[in-house]
Specification:
The complex is a heterodimer. Chain A is α/β, with parallel strands linked by helices. In chain A, the strands form 3 sheets. Chain A has an 8-stranded mixed sheet with strand order 6-5-4-7-8-9-10-11, with helices on both faces. A 6-stranded mixed sheet of chain A has the order 14-13-15-16-12-17. Chain B is of the alpha/beta class. Chain B has 15 helices and 14 strands. In chain B, α4 runs parallel beside α7 (177-188). The chains are: A alpha/beta, B alpha/beta. Chain B: This is THIF-type NAD/FAD binding fold domain-containing protein. Chain B: InterPro entries: ThiF/MoeB/HesA, ThiF_NAD_FAD-bd, Ubiquitin-activating_enz.
């Protein structure tokens, strides 16, 4: 009882609080210096052990309800008589978490763990570690869902997999590997997408807890909604480099995964990509999304590759043909023609528009004859070294050109040689796939082609070139990952899962793994947060959409809002009682025709017109998630900042980027790129293979995060109510620039609340 | 000539004429040197006097100084200004196979660090659950070799927390823990050489440890740990020394990178001098160690019946150290004594942190722990404690404190 701080947590009525205050006032002034009652606002937040300032030894802190208070007393500083009185009080009302009284290791035999049915979503970096730790901790009924197959770059941390397993289902191999050292437990593997309709609310209801080890925002949102609908607790996790996070989401008790804004992946204005790139990322996006897609992807897809040059020349006929290989044309000739067109002719066309280059550096057109002689072209590559045709993913232009180290910077000539060689190999060895190829970071030849094309474009625009290794990281959206962080995070997940199963609500924690020591800590626990009352997922708060109802089609709304922002997989859109759109297997032909006709109509001319003031109801039957959207008409949208042509308000606030925020050089091969500012535990997402286009994230991750300085935040006055706090939070969110984007789902809300707690 | 602890191992690559293995051709322009440095270290650095100056290179020479700090950075370009440029580096490039396998982690710590990892040799003693986790982590990270030592046979405890041991009796009978773990670890990464050394730990001579860059000791008495620590310290080469213990929901890591306190000093600091906020686990672990030593117990062999004796020893120690009895909470000691077996999630966490520390020490990237790390499930904090005697009379005080502990134990 001589410990520094004593926590008393018991119900106090308001009159008793007043009495305490009076007692406090009776103390001498000297005593009052170290027994100070700190007035607190009656907010929704909990007290937190490590956030108490040392100078306030006596705190009264409200917890969940107005009448439930905690007293924190620094016993060492109290007069002896008062201390004794408090010991007495402690005896009567002590509340110690259950876990503090019993050894943890004996829990392995506990019925709460043995009898628990657990769902693990994701068997990747975190998943492998998690499955092992769960099995060792005594869990006996585990289900795993993962749609991925094993790749070589997984083997450095996903230790349940071996070289011989490459290409097999992660979920199945992980199951077999763990059964080898725990043969008597039940593990069920599902090699499937968690978004499949078979994993519905009923499926989720059979589990006691769901553990996420996912790599993308979309799936995380989906699981969050299913867990809310099925009322199953969710333990969410993520890592990047040495940073990691684990959080608990229990409906009604804590926030849900979507209570805090998660910045969505960055999209770039079309004209930056097609005509005025200023960063290497822009070149990568151009090479990957436009050039690669145009040459090897679906020919019927819309493609902006020639948009700008068309505007100036008007010779649409010519550009139609340019990318088509003529019947008797040699691959070499075809390659030169493409090269000269995209790096030479198109640049010259763009240059002819003087207006564009007034305040920019003019690009330099590059023609193949300038960089690579006909002679060199002839002896370019020896195809027999390029890998066998049996395994298309192993074909390599680098190998056939004798370029070994992927970390080397290639010269313009080397890049051009790789460009031609890759094109030749695509036509020589993988002709069947042309027309249906999509960029894949594990497709060596595709990475080589994109690196070379991006570098040539970068050279033309005076942007520094990058190595294949770096370019691959940017193009493939590769997340840094190490085994140790995943192991630590898996351990933290199991600890939280056990607390959830024991219903030990008070000791739920959100934990951060930090790279730099903060307050003496490398693993930092934080109290979970209260549900966000304005969260549209768990509180059903309506959203507002600003849109031009006379120009935007229903299709734009479905693609850009319902699918991209709300992450719905099988949406249903209603205006009042009339159905505008629906996805499902059981629709008859008339309905399908009706819906596809609706898709092409602008909002204001739909069968039941959608105009300013209309409220749309969007529902996902699989996720059992309904969302109301108030439509607000707006005429103009800024092409640079609002490329979607519509703005969703009340949803994840993606702050507008300051103009010069990420000019810092990309340090792909340097020291760890996750230099999060020390006071701010960054939250990671993802292990490997993020699906969405999100190149900016890696580009910007090398810089220090500019967090709000804690000194700038003043203590909220006691009268402050939750709404004000929310407003303040939103304001803060706007200020923080979103470096990490999809990679780092930094809980802005959390940080703010966290900061306040620290201050207290 | 700077000294950078273990991770400052000097490596040289040269541009001057006396170069044997130039990384870049001698005719390289300064901007190529800059680009090379940028690639290797993330930014070009010049070490000059007592400052580290970050510079930007252009073809015409060092164009402008971007900023400087007096911090000692791990990676250095030592410039004999204008006339000669000497760069430090060693070893060949990573193979294609390595680059493919380690792709994701090279993006975290860089190719240079990965090369150093693949040349490092690690010695591990005491194959319990936490150490198994640690071994998995460093084998996956791609160290050069791991040497295991533990002659004990398989017990139920080992089966419960060590996932490297297959549970079939016909597989494990007749084999030692180290042999079984070795078999499993080999499979994790064919590029890492894993082997078993059979010997009595205390009898190993100093020269035995010469072969290693990192020594990790677990589950053995504190006296043995101190002995090994001293042997490592006496070597001319820098050997990073770690000890690790997990009990129930708590874990402890001690780190000695030979630039700070010996284990002996660190474990015998006078309690009264330590900060009041020092993790209670530090004291609790010392009580438990003293109890084991006094009663001749093997580490971690405890039962509920020992609780009163442990609490009594605690009272004596607190008295002898002239600190209040509540310095070490009874509930914490009870937990450590009753639940002496390892709790798998804590093994994963402590094994992960230790792996991270060893990687930091070898690669020279990041700030290493100084000098204890603690984790307890109950508060969920992973805390770093800097245990040293701050007062000038530290040495005499700490030896006095060591004497106090010995006396109490003897009584």
């Amino acid at each position: 009882f001589h410990s520094c701080l004593l926590f008393l947590s018991f119900p106090f009525s308001l009159p008793r609080i007043r009495k305490l205050v009076l007692v406090h006032q009776r103390f001498s002034l000297e005593d009052r210096l170290f027994i100070s009652l700190v007035p607190c606002s009656i907010l929704q937040y909990h007290s937190h052990s490590f956030t108490f300032p040392l100078f306030a030894p006596f705190l009264l802190l409200p917890t969940t309800t107005i009448f439930h208070w905690q007293i924190v007393i620094d016993l060492q500083l109290l007069p002896r008589s008062f201390r004794l009185a408090l010991y007495f009080a402690y005896f009567i009302c002590r509340s110690i978490p259950v876990s503090a009284l019993f050894p943890m290791a004996s829990l392995q035999q506990s019925p709460a763990i043995k009898g628990a049915k657990v769902l693990m979503v994701g068997a990747g970096g975190i998943g492998c570690e998690l499955l092992k730790t769960l099995a060792l901790s005594g869990f006996e009924d585990i289900h795993i869902i993962d749609m991925d197959t094993i790749e070589v770059s997984n083997l450095n941390r996903q230790f349940l997999f071996r070289q011989k397993h490459v290409g097999q289902s992660k979920a199945k191999v992980a199951r077999d590997a763990v059964l080898r050292f725990r043969p008597h437990i039940s593990i069920t593997s599902h090699h499937a997408n968690v978004k499949d309709s078979s994993f519905n609310v009923d499926f989720f209801k059979q589990f006691n807890v769901v553990l996420n080890g996912l790599d993308n925002l979309d799936a995380r949102r989906h699981v969050n909604r299913l867990c809310l609908a099925a009322e199953v607790p969710l333990v969410e996790s993520g890592t990047t480099g040495f940073l990691g996070q684990v959080s608990v989401h229990v409906k009604g008790r804590t926030d849900c995964y979507e209570c805090n804004p998660k910045p969505s992946p960055k999209t770039y204005p079309v004209c930056t990509i097609t005509s005025t790139p200023s960063k290497f990322v822009h070149c990568i996006v151009w090479a990957k999304e436009l050039l690669f897609a145009k040459l090897f992807g679906d020919k019927n897809q819309d493609n902006d590759l020639n948009v700008r040059s068309n505007d100036s020349t008007g010779s649409s006929e010519q550009t139609e043909d340019v990318f088509e290989r003529k019947a008797d044309e040699s691959v070499e000739h075809y390659g030169r023609r493409i090269y000269d067109h995209v790096f030479g002719y198109n640049i010259e066309q763009a240059l002819s528009n003087e207006e564009t280059w007034k305040n920019r550096n003019k690009p330099r057109p590059i023609y193949s004859s300038d960089v690579i002689s006909a002679e060199l072209m002839q002896q370019n590559g020896s195809s027999n070294k390029a890998g066998s045709a049996d395994d298309p993913l192993s074909v390599s232009a680098m190998a056939s050109l004798g370029l070994k180290n992927p970390q080397d910077l290639w010269s313009l000539t080397d890049n051009s040689r790789v460009f031609f060689e890759a094109l030749k190999l695509f036509f020589g060895k993988r002709e069947k796939e042309i027309g249906s190829l999509g960029f894949d970071k594990d497709d060596q030849l595709a990475v080589e082609f994109v690196t070379a094309a991006a570098n040539i474009r970068a050279a033309s625009f005076g942007i520094p070139l990058h190595s294949l290794f770096e370019a691959k990281g940017i193009a493939g959206n590769i997340v840094h990952a190490v085994a140790t962080t995943n192991a630590i995070v898996a351990g933290l997940i199991v600890i939280e899962a056990i607390k959830v199963l024991q219903k030990d609500f008070d000791s739920y924690r959100m934990s951060y793994c930090l790279e730099h020591v903060t307050q003496k800590m490398l693993i930092m626990p934080v109290q979970p947060f209260e549900p966000n009352k304005s969260c549209c997922v768990c509180s059903e708060t309506p959203l507002t959409l600003e849109i031009n109802t006379n120009h935007s089609k229903l299709r734009d709304f479905v693609e850009k809002i319902v699918k991209a922002k709300l992450s719905m997989t099988s949406p249903l859109i209603m205006h009042g009682s009339s159905l505008l759109y629906e996805v499902g297997d059981d629709l008859d032909e008339a309905m399908i025709a009706n819906y596809s006709a609706n898709l092409e109509k602008v909002l204001s001319s739909l069968p039941s017109p959608v105009t300013s003031g209309t409220m749309l109801t969007v529902e996902d039957l699989l996720q059992e998630f309904t969302c109301n959207i108030n439509i607000k008409h707006r005429e103009e949208f800024d092409e640079e900042n609002e490329p979607d042509g519509m703005v969703l308000l009340g949803w994840t606030q993606v702050p507008t980027k300051p103009k010069d925020d990420d000019d810092k050089p990309h340090t792909g091969n340097g020291v760890s790129t996750s230099k999060t500012s020390e006071t701010e535990p960054a939250v990671a997402q993802a292990d490997a293979g993020v699906v969405k286009i999100n190149v900016e994230a890696i580009d910007a991750s090398g810089k220090k995060r500019k967090g709000p300085d804690s000194k700038d935040i003043s203590l909220d006055p006691p009268s402050n109510v939750a709404d004000e706090a929310t407003a303040a939070n939103h304001k803060k969110v706007q200020q923080i620039d979103e470096d990490e984007e999809d990679l780092v789902v930094l809980d802005q809300w959390d940080i703010d609340t966290n900061k306040k707690q620290k201050l207290r | 000539k700077p000294s950078f602890g273990l991770y400052g191992t000097r490596k040289t690559f040269l541009f001057s004429s006396d170069s044997s293995k130039p990384i870049l051709p001698c005719s390289s322009t300064l901007s190529e040197v800059g680009a090379g440095l940028q690639r290797e270290f993330g930014f070009p650095v010049v070490w000059f006097g007592r400052c580290v100056i970050q510079v930007q290179f252009t073809d015409s020479g060092i164009s402008r100084v971007l900023g400087f700090s007096s911090l000692l950075l791990n990676c250095l370009l030592i410039v004999n200004l204008v006339t000669r440029v000497r760069l430090e580096m060693e070893g060949e490039q990573l193979t294609e196979q390595e680059t493919a396998l380690y792709d994701r982690q090279i993006r975290v710590w860089g190719a240079d660090a990965q090369r150093r990892l693949s040349k490092s040799h690690i010695f591990v003693y005491g194959m319990k659950g936490t150490v198994a986790e640690f071994c998995k982590n460093i084998v996956l990270a791609g160290v050069g070799s791991v040497t295991l030592m533990d002659d004990r046979a398989v017990t139920n405890e080992a089966l419960a927390s060590n996932f490297l041991i297959p549970p079939e009796e016909k597989v494990y009978s007749g084999k030692t823990l180290a042999e079984l773990c070795c078999d499993s670890l080999k499979e994790f990464n064919p590029m890492v050489h894993v082997s078993v050394e059979k010997a009595e730990l205390v009898t190993l001579g100093q020269q035995f440890f010469e072969k290693f860059d990192v020594v990790v000791i677990s589950s053995c008495p504190p006296a043995t740990k101190i002995l090994i620590n001293e042997k490592c310290r006496k070597l001319s080469k820098r050997v990073a020394f770690y000890t690790v213990e997990c009990r129930d929901s708590c874990g402890e890591i001690f780190v000695d990178l030979q630039n700070y306190k010996y284990m002996k000093e660190a474990t015998s600091a006078p309690w009264g001098r330590l900060q009041r906020r020092t993790s209670k686990l530090y004291f609790a672990m010392r009580v438990i160690e003293s109890f084991e030593e006094a009663n001749g117990r093997n580490p971690g062999v405890f039962s509920v019946e020992d609780v009163p004796a442990v609490l009594q020893l605690k009272r004596k120690l607190c008295e002898a150290q002239s600190v209040s009895e509540s310095f070490v909470p009874d509930t914490l000691l009870e937990r450590l004594v009753i639940g002496s077996i390892e709790f798998p999630p804590v093994c994963a966490i402590i094994g992960g942190i230790l792996g991270q520390e060893v990687i930091k020490a070898i690669s020279g990237k990041g700030d290493p722990v100084k000098n204890f790390f603690y984790f307890d499930v109950v508060d969920g904090k992973g805390v770093i404690e800097d245990i040293s005697s701050r007062a000038p009379e530290a040495d005499s005080a700490s030896s006095k404190s060591a004497n106090i502990i010995t006396q109490v134990v003897l009584e």
